[in-house]
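User: My collaborator and I are trying to settle a disagreement about how two of our proteins should look. Neither of us wants to argue from intuition anymore, so we agreed to look at predicted structures for both before our next call. Could you fold the first one, then the second, and keep them clearly separated?

Assistant: That sounds like a sensible way to settle it. I'll keep them separate. The first protein:
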Amino acid sequence: MIKKELIKNGLNHSICHIFALLTLLLGILLRGNVWLQQRSIFLDEANLIQNYLEKSYAELFGHLDYQQYAPPLFSVIMKFVFQTFGVNELSAKAFPLLCGIGLLFAFYSLAQRLLSRFAAAFALLFVCFDKIFIDYATECKQYATDALITVTLLLLSQTIDFKSFNRQKAILWALIGSLAIGFSMPSIFVLASVGAYYIYQFWHTKNKAALWQIGSVGGFWLVQFAVYFLFVLKTDAQSDNLQNYHLQYFFAFPPLSMSDLSLLKTQVLGIIDRAIGITVLAAVLAILSFLIGVIHLWRTQKGRFLLLLLPIVLTLTASALHYYSLIARLILFLLPIFILLIFIGFDTILKKAPLPFSVIITIGFVATIIVQIQVLKPFEYFRNDYSELRDGLDFIKKEKRSDEVFFTSFGVTPVVRFYTQFHDHPYELDKLVLQDYVCCDPHLMENALIALHQKGERRIWLLGDQPTYESFTKFIESQHGMVVKKLEFYRGVALLYEIPLSNAKY
């Protein structure tokens, strides 16, 4: 008994709360620093921003152009930010930054309700320092908002008391759910779990009036989501282009072949990687703790079992039906739930397992977060998966002569258009040729460059990411050209090539 009391007191010691507050401060400073770095806008951000600059507020509630999607209320706020603070990198990433910071506070507040102080502080470390959370807190996309909405809904389910549920609280939840759907489409999975959580409690207490009220609220949420899905999302979700692009990210369940089984393994390990780390140690700890956490909730808190497991089950079901992709950015909203379940299991181990085993597990999690922080490289310039095209633009602006053409292929054009036409301080570049996408032409870039050669243009600047560098090189060689100037920057290249005078006109 003494040992158990000592462990319980240690796990809830005030020093754990102080450590968590310091972690929150570091998380905020880290995100603020990355935001101030003003990373280059990438393709999807540029296309999304162009929608915000071209469309009216009302039009943001319908289909977006340039193969983009974003929730309408998120889009409204983004358009307002651009109109108020100008078109630049800081404005583009300001609202996602606030959402990313808000996620830290919401997550810790929820974790304190589900975990001991020690486990809550430990779980917070992964949300603060996992690279994916920092990345999407500083991108002009809705994924940080998705995560914040998810955790906020779960937190509200624990603060809006079901024991005194009444009509006013039902109306409040109807409004909260409507706002959540407007800001985050995957919130429908979380709202379903919140509804199931309340239904379980009301069924258990035989509160028929509350059952009818929460049932009506759930019906209201479902109708609202169904209308938006049918009129806005369905066409894009079922398009061949989107289905093919996300084919490897649809949940491979049930696995009907060895390739399906291999893909399923990759998908599960990918989720673990995003949640707590890529190492074998992280995978073992995550699977063990997750299973213990789920079993613990099923045995002791079936309401919370539904609350935390149902969003995962619904998301994976939608993915198996090819309606939801498990690509990293789209599962960001689920990662806080996975982390909570892992640390519910961790907390259970600390409280019930023999002390030596608890110490080993704790050391394992310490090693895992150290690896995550090393992957993050917090004292270096933050890098994500996209090229810093602005570095290439700076080089071209500095080196380009007025008689040289700057040609952008369709994969780079939206970014260059942002920096040359939309930005508050645009790049001024002569002889700029922006190529837009034309469906089904596999030689679009090459044909356009040959057309420029036929017009007598011999010196042409190109800008691209790493995958396009090889295609640049092959084309230049096919034209017997020569690279005159080149800069290789993070995940990209800017180069000037020249073709022989005899090839300038065909």
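The second protein, kept apart from the first:
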Amino acid sequence: MAAAILKPFISEANYWMLAHHPIFQVYFFGEHIGVDPNERDRFISSPYYDRTVEFTAAYDEVSFDPDYLNEPIETFEPMVRRVLDKPWSPPR
């Protein structure tokens, strides 16, 4: 859903990454819930595969660590506003 909402504001590569994010994220916990953690490999021919692997390794893997130090949401507000402040037209 996030990919669909952000599509008018982001690149094709970022849209693909967000749309496929749940499948790639399973890599880190799939074996614990009976899901194939390598399901993402069916997209290995995509030009955005490596980008999505790197993104989930850098940001998702650590999100499952309860001791990981993170920033408060206020840290990210200026970034979100900068992205959403771009002009756009509704899809036809």
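Some points you might bring to the call about the second protein. The radius of gyration is 15 Å. The chain has a mean pLDDT of 91.
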